[in-house]
Amino acid sequence: MVSDASLQKASPQKASPQKVSPPKASPQTASPQKTSSGPQPIVISGPSGTGKSTILKRLFEKYPEKFMFSVSHTTRAPRPGEKDGTHYTFITQPHFEELIRNNAFIEHARFGKNLYGTSFAAVSRVTEAGKTCILDIEMEGVKQVQRSDLRARVLFLQPPNFEELERRLRGRGTDAEEDVRRRLDQARLEMVFATSEVAAGRGKGVVNDDLEKAYREVEEFCLADD
Ligand SMILES: Nc1ncnc2c1ncn2[C@@H]1O[C@H](COP(=O)(O)OP(=O)(O)OP(=O)(O)O)[C@@H](O)[C@H]1O
Question: In the chain, which end has fewer C-beta atoms inside a 10 angstrom radius, N or C?
Answer without folding.
Answer: C
